[in-house]
Structure formats: C-alpha cells, structure tokens
Specification:
The structure is a single chain. By secondary structure, this protein is of the alpha+beta class. The chain has 3 domains: 3-150, no CATH class; 161-283, no CATH class; 305-369, no CATH class. It has 9 helices and 13 strands. The chain has helices at 3-18, 57-62, 89-98, 139-150, 181-190, 200-203, 234-250, 275-283, 305-340, and strands at 35-36, 39-42, 64-73, 78-86, 105-106, 113-116, 119-124, 127-132, 176-178, 210-218, 222-230, 259-262, 265-270. Strand 7 (119-124) and strand 8 form a beta hairpin.
Length: 370
C-alpha cells in the first residue's frame, strides 16, 4: 500500500471515529516520529489486514483530538503503532484503563505501560500509544518511541482517585477509571457488574465526580469489585450518598451492597463476598483526610522577668532624673530672671490681682507679697 493510500485510509478511519459525535475532532500536527532507533516509517506487508480504530462511546466521551496509525520497519520486521491524543491526561487515562485486561502485565518499558499478547499499551501525558508486534522490537526501541511521544505532551498530574485503590488482592488489568457515564458503563461491563448500571444517573458525573473501579481476589478463590467515587466537596458527596442509597434499597437485585462516605469519597463494594471482606477492603483504601487551620503566628517571646524588672527600675530612674533636671532648670531660670529683672518679666504688679472680700477699708497692695 503506497503512501497516498495510507494517508487516505488514515483520514477515513478518523472520519469513521468522529461520525455520530457532537463535534468533529480535527487532526493536529503529526506526533509519531519518522524514525526512532532502527525503525523508520514503512508501508507495511501487502497481506496485512485493514487498519481499524475502535469507535466506541468511551473514547468519544474522553474527547480524542488526534489519531495516527502508522507502520514502522527495520528492513525485515514490522511494527504497527497507533497514537491517540486526548484533551487532557485524565481523559487519556480513561481510554488507557479501558484498554487494560488481566492478560496484560506491567511492562518494564516505563510507568503506566502494560504488555501482553504481543502488544503494548502506554500512557504518556494526554497521549496513549498502542504498539502491535512488540516481539519484533526491544525495550530500548520502545523507550525511544515513548520518549519521542513524550515531547510536548500535556503532563498534568493524573486524577488522585487512581492512587486510592488498595494494593492487596488487586487483580491487575481490572482497573477502570471513569469520568462520565460511558466510561462507567464500560467499566461495569468489563467487571461483570452491569446490574449496578441503575446507579449511573445518581453518581452525578456532571458535578465533577470521578470513579475508579477494580476487582479484588478474596478468600475461597472468589472476587469482589470495589467502586470509589471522588467528589469536589464533602457536601456534594453527602448529597449523592442519599441518591445512591435510594437506588440500592429500591432494587432487590443489589441487596448486600452498601455505600459509605468518608469526607468527599464514596466507597461501594459490588457483589461483596461477605460483610467482613467488604469491610476489610474498605479499610484498605488509601484515603486520609485532614483539617488545617491557618492562623496568624508570631515568633516573639516574653523576655525573662529579671530583665523586665531591670527595665522598670532603669526607666523609672531615668524619668525621675529627667524630671529633676527639668525642674531645676525651670526654677533656676525663673529665680535668675527675677533677680536680674525684678518686676519686669515675672510677677509684674500690673498683672497681679488679689481677690478681696472688702471686710476692711484698707486695700491690699499685691507688692506686699513679694
């Protein structure tokens, strides 16, 4: 298949994917490299089946922006690589978990990679890479590919709810993240828990809810699924708690399942093996809450009491000394002025008045007092 036909096929796949969605995703700049290591773009073997992209509601809900389907050759062998670019890492994480299954094991190529059945699934920021025929490549080759895809990728942190899942008894490949009804419905189907689909409208994804599901091995070679839902605030979580409880109590097929709230997190054990097993699974959830209060603070401390007493005495003596000096100065100036200029500045007769009762006929002369 020549280059022109491959590009036409790629456009057809992208158009098929976007058909029926509310908005058509426009393909952005080419992300996959022309070459990594010894691998270069090639047309692929003539007998290879036609490329097809999974057009499903989960990926539509995640909001794919760019799809690239390419083949690479080292001259003898081939690799088929699909790249999907989403609006943010959380959306890409929904698409990534929807591609997992117990047949895939954690890969040594890098974090958030899973390999098995001759294929690799990797999450790199807001981009997801699927590689087929990985037996033809080495880990070093695949690392070069992911390093190239990592350039200019959105590496915003992934949703925290993914880290709340307990590790003990987790069946790898069953993890499912959902940020909307389509992702949640697909997760229930993958975990064989479709009978819980009636709670989907009550979760409230429109309020910012994020759901994480996984299956866990329990005693007696039995398994049970854990659903945790993270909300923006405890108030929203409390409101949704009552909605979900109403659905569970009204549906006999969901008997045995209970929902609990811890701060802004709801937990629900689907099809619990026993009440004790469900309680233990809930206790293992990695979720801690803390309330902090930021108050104004100061680093000053009271000085020793001896230093305080010393300051009091020194201040008192200084004040007394200043008062004595000022008194002597004021009095000395007044006395000196009266001696040098008697009756001229202070105690001038014309300025002195004496209140008299007039009990005698003799008028008092103010000068008699000085």
């Amino acid at each position: 298949m020549n280059r022109t036909f491959r590009i036409a096929a790629l456009c057809a796949v992208v158009m098929s994917y976007t058909a029926g969605s509310a908005a058509v995703a426009q393909q952005t700049a080419h992300v996959l490299p022309k070459q990594f290591g010894k691998w270069t773009l090639g047309d692929g073997p003539a007998d290879e089946p036609k490329l097809a992209f999974p057009n499903n509601p989960v990926l539509q809900e995640a909001g794919v922006k760019n799809v690239e389907l390419e083949r690479y050759s080292d001259g003898k062998k081939w690799l088929r690589i699909w790249l999907e670019e989403y609006r943010d890492p959380s959306s890409a994480y929904q698409a990534y978990t929807s591609s997992l299954d117990p047949k895939l094991n954690a890969s040594t190529v890098g974090p958030l990679t899973a390999a098995g059945d001759d294929r690799l699934v990797a999450l790199v920021g807001n981009r997801m890479v699927r590689v087929l025929w990985i037996k033809n490549a080495t880990d070093a080759d695949l690392k070069l590919l992911l390093d190239s895809v990592k350039e200019k990728a959105d590496r915003t942190p992934l949703p925290p709810v993914r880290s709340y899942l307990p590790e003990e008894g987790l069946i790898q490949g069953t993890q499912r993240y959902a940020l909307g009804p389509a992702g949640f419905a697909a997760a229930l189907t993958a975990l064989n828990e479709k009978r819980f689909s009636s709670i989907t409208p009550e979760i409230g994804f429109a309020t910012g809810a994020e759901a994480m599901l996984a299956s866990y091995q329990s005693e007696g070679n039995k398994s049970q699924a854990l659903l945790i839902i993270d909300y923006p605030t405890p108030q929203i979580a409390e409101q949704r708690l009552h909605h979900i409880q109403g659905v569970l109590s009204a549906n006999p097929a969901l008997a045995g399942a209970t929902v609990e709230r811890k701060a802004s997190l709801l937990s629900l054990v689907l099809s619990p093996v026993s009440a004790e097993a469900a309680a233990k699974l809930r206790d293992d959830i990695h979720y801690q809450t803390s309330v902090t209060w930021n108050e104004p603070s100061q680093t000053l401390t009271d000085p020793p009491w001896l230093l305080v007493v010393k300051g009091i005495f020194v201040g008192t003596l200084a004040f007394c000394g200043i008062a004595i000096v000022m008194g002597i100065a004021f009095g000395g100036v007044r006395v000196l002025t009266k001696r040098l200029f008697p009756g001229k500045v202070f105690d001038r007769p014309e300025d002195i008045e004496v209140l008299q009762l007039g009990l005698s006929g003799k008028r008092i002369d103010p000068r008699d007092f000085y």
